[in-house]
Amino acid sequence: MLGVLLLAVGLGMIGSAVHKLEAPESIPKVHIVALWVALGALVVKEVLFRYMLYVAEKVRSSMLVANAWHARSDAASSLVVAIGIGGNLMGFGLLDPIAALIVGFMVARMGWEFGWDALHDLTDRAATEEQVAGIAADILATPGVLGMHELKTRKTGDMILADVHLEIDGNLTVAQGHEIARQAKLRVMENHPVLYLMTHVDPVSRTDSEPIRP
User: Fold this and answer.
1) Which residues contact 161 (CB under 8 A, 6 or more apart)?
2) What is the DSSP annotation of 142-176?
3) CB-based burial of residue 30 (10 Å sphere; 0-12 exposed, 13-18 middle, 19+ buried)?
4) Over 176-189, what HEC string results?
5) What is the pLDDT of residues 20-50, one digit of tens each?
6) Which of 59, 61, 118, 185 makes an SS bond possible with 197, Cβ 3.0 to 4.6 Å?
7) Which has the closest alpha carbon to 202: 165, 164, 151?
8) How far is CA 79 from CA 31, 62, 103, 209, in A?
9) Model's pTM, two decimal places?
10) With b meaning 16 or more CB within 10 Å and e meaning fewer, what string describes 145-165?
11) What span, in angstroms and rounded, lies between the C-alpha atoms of 178 and 1?
């Protein structure tokens, strides 16, 4: 919804800017107070962006990330607006709608990217290659895990659901194999945004990487 709203706002700004470019006489003269407001908004929004992004990464929330970048888009918009207002004050009225046109494209582009990214999350896309590689590395680093295969992931909101086949020494007891699998699951869930890791134990011999088949 945030992506759609940003896209709509961006397209609305583009339409308004095009109208002013077609009718330059409709461009009003701005007051210098508008310039100070734009510069103040630039500073406030940039500080807000950095704080929200910090919190978003800490709590692993894609919604907060989107809101943080929304604040950054506002900061960038304020910069462009300040340039446009400055041009207007110096007698270059066309800089105002040109600035609005640039800001409109920026907001629309950000809205499209947020919406497209959210749509992929809603369709159960897999985790990124970096996340999959990190999960695999932690699984293989678990004592007792001799190998792994068929690691599968899918996003569920901001978290990940995963399942994997673990290759464990076939000479161990069922209880020992279960404990190794449990440690692998706990390690992954502690170090990554994984909601749950489903494990399947495949017994192997230490001299053979192929699982022992019944």
Assistant:
1) 153, 154, 155, 194, 195, 196, 198
2) STTEEEEEEEEEEEETTEEEEEEEEEEETTS-HHH
3) middle
4) HHHHHHHHHHHHHH
5) 777 776 666 777 887 888 888 888 888 888 8
6) 185
7) 165
8) 17, 26, 9, 60
9) 0.51
10) bbebeebebebeebebbbebe
11) 44
| Sequence spans of domains, the chain | 2-122, 129-204
What is the identity of the amino acid at 178?
H
Question: Could you report the per-residue pLDDT of 91-142, keeping only the tens digit for each?
Answer: 776 777 787 788 888 888 888 888 887 777 677 778 888 899 999 999 999 9
CB 170 within 8 A of CB 205: yes
Report the amino acid identity of residue 149. Answer: H
Cβ 158 vs Cβ 133: under 8 Å: no
- Domain 129-204 matching CATH 3.30.160.20: the answer reads no
Question: Residue 147 has which token pair?
Answer: 């190998």
Rounded CA separation 144/142 (Å): 6
